[in-house]
Amino acid sequence: YAIGIPLTLLAIFLAFREILELITSFKFYFRRVENYLEWFLISSSVILSFVDLDSTATVHLSAWTALVAFYELLLTWEHVLQGHYIGKFRFTVRNISRYFAWFAFPMLASSVSLWFLYAP
User: Fold this and answer.
1) What is residue 23's predicted lDDT score, i.e. its pLDDT?
2) What is the 3-state secondary structure (H, E, C) of the chain?
3) Which of 5, 72, 79, 90 is 20 to 30 A (C-alpha) from 99?
């Protein structure tokens, strides 16, 4: 739990930032995917810090948290000044993500179905 306290303090800071964003732009807040990803990251970091999960659940939640964090890093780039090439990069990443989703969802569905078939 040594890393849990600083991680939770950062999660509280991020939650406070998300609540302020919700208050200031309530109309557009639920339309942006990045906000859902932020809430997933906040909740998963607190769960990984303080909830006693079995080893497989911890590994799976950690993997999903890392994937979502990397995906959010690729999509948001809000801390970077919006230059011409950054805008092109974001446009390209969003288009590639759409095409990737066409392949990722069937792969995810098949892996879940195989897990259901072969789970102990």
Assistant:
1) 92
2) CCCHHHHHHHHHHHHHHHHHHHHHCHHHHCCCHHHHHHHHHHHHHHHHHHCCCCHHHHHHHHHHHHHHHHHHHHHCCCCCCCCHHHHHHHHHHHHHHHHHHHHHHHHHHHHHHHHHHHCC
3) 79
Contact between residue 68 and residue 40 where contact means Cβ atoms under 8 Å apart = yes
* pTM for the structure as a whole: 0.60
- pLDDT tens digit sequence for 31-44: 888 888 889 988 98
Q: Which backbone phi and psi does 95 adopt, to 5 degrees?
A: -65, -45
Q: Which tokens hold the place of 59?
A: 């590994």
Please tell me the distance from the alpha carbon of residue 48 to that of residue 119, in angstroms, as a whole number: 23
